[in-house]
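My current task is to audit a protein record that another person submitted. Alongside the sequence sits a line of tokens, each denoting a local backbone shape. Please read both lines and tell me whether the tokens look consistent with the sequence. Do not assume that whoever made the record got everything right. Thanks in advance; the entry in question is below.
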Amino acid sequence: MMLRKFSFPTVALHSMMKQKERFAALAKFKSSIYRILIATDVASRGLDIPTVQVVINHNTPGLPKIYIHRVGRTARAGRQGQAITLVTQYDIHLVHAIEEQIKKKLEEYSVEEAEVLQILTQVNVVRRECEIKLEAANFDEKKEINKRKQLILEGKDPDLEAKRKAELAKIKQKNRRFKEQVEHTLQRQKANRAGQRGRPPRARPEAHSASAPIQGPA
């Protein structure tokens, strides 16, 4: 929706679409009617899309095998391809796990920060407009219903699964706060040590002794 607002013709592929709609969207992308496909992990495996040149991961996959399936859409049949993953400071451990799995170090893709900041406000405004439209269409509610149906089909209890995810989120948040506290403490200690090294040594005050006259017996 956002890309269309910026005049980028796109087609979507996700689990809330009917099977017939998925096939139609995929056909439009494979025939180059649309050059951009916005997809969830529905498209990460089991699909033959031989002409994909670039895969952009909007988030860092939680498991290395998911990353491999996602970027496997590129470089098929010996062709070259490129995969770009958006990473936050909380995803570094996921990147390390991926690098360990694929036996390759991922390279940083540099961007011009000035150009990003120039369009950031406009992007945020358009994003909010799209969120309002989705809220009006009860998109989140439909998405939640669809998730529950999928869990039931997989033989899982949706309520237990939701509870498990909530507990896992609490643990992650707690670990994140602990790491932030440790980093803050280390930075403060480092700053204190640097400050102490830069100060001139203090001169010790000279010791002075005072004696009172002692009077003998009269």
